[in-house]
Amino acid sequence: MNYAHLTDDFNPIHVDDDFAAKSPFGKTIVHGTLSLTLVWDLLAQFYPGRSLNGMQVKVRFTAPVAVGETVTATLKDADAPGSPLQVQVLREDGQPALTAEVTLP
Amino acid sequence: MREPADYRTFDSFQPGALIGETEVRLDDTLKASWEGIGQLPPDGRLPPGLLVALLMRGYGQVVDRRPPGNVHAGLEIDLLDDRLEGDRMRVVVRCADKELRKGRRWVHFAAEQFCGDRCLARSRLTLLWAR
User: Fold this and answer.
1) Nearest beta carbon to residue A56 from set B30, B78, B81
2) Alpha helix (H) ranges present in chain B?
């Protein structure tokens, strides 16, 4: 609910269990950009103290995450110098909830 | 509940057109909400997660009357400057493009966040529009 308040996005698919139960998702789902916070946390963990100004991030939200579900973020190093880092946030079933390409400054 | 005629529709978007701008204020209640999610550095710098959350708040204020069933499919963001001096930022939103693909209505929005004259971030949001 903190994130709904922060973004002022109270779409019932995110906050209303009864509404969401009748939706194609069957349950409330988290805001996609909340899952994205894991990407920032992961980058802060791997690049501590580094300014993120100048960073470019391209995100695709590929699958919904149910409220209460545990998600895991993974970071794959760049294939070649200067190419983007590949980050995924995975759902409990292993399906990517989002994929991101991160170009560091 | 809104009547369907009130919603912004795919047809109403004009690529390249300014949709509007709004001021977002990071007040104490929003700070408290963020601190339930992440940390708030004492030096006034905005964590990227909070910057994105405030982007979404501004987007929602500008692109109001959204129909139910929209899907947020993508986000591209260039982080330029994480210094928020004071507690206010301006969020400007344009329709960057729209396209019909395989019967689906895609709308791309270009958004910029400013603190005074400084651009904090430039973003492109991709939505699958419901109506």
Assistant:
1) B78
2) 28-35, 48-62
- Cα(B83)–Cα(B87) distance, integer angstroms: 10
Segment A25-80, tens digit of pLDDT: 899 999 999 999 999 999 999 988 888 899 999 999 999 999 999 999 999 877 78
* Chain position carrying tokens 């946030």: A89
Chain A environment of B36 (Cβ under 8 Å): 2
Query: How far is A19 from A77, CA to CA, in rounded Å?
Result: 41
The predicted complex's ipTM stands at: 0.93
Q: 0.90 exceeded by the pTM?
A: yes
Q: Which residue of B38, B57, B80 is in closest CB contact with A37?
A: B38
Q: Distance between CA B117 and CA B113 in Å, rounded?
A: 10
A and B: number of Cβ contacts within 8 A: 88
Subunit contact A53:B81, Cβ cutoff 8 A: yes
Cβ-Cβ contacts under 8 Å, B60 against chain A: 7-9
Whose CA is closest to B45, among B81, B80, B82? B82
> Is residue B15 within 8 Å of B100, Cβ to Cβ?
no
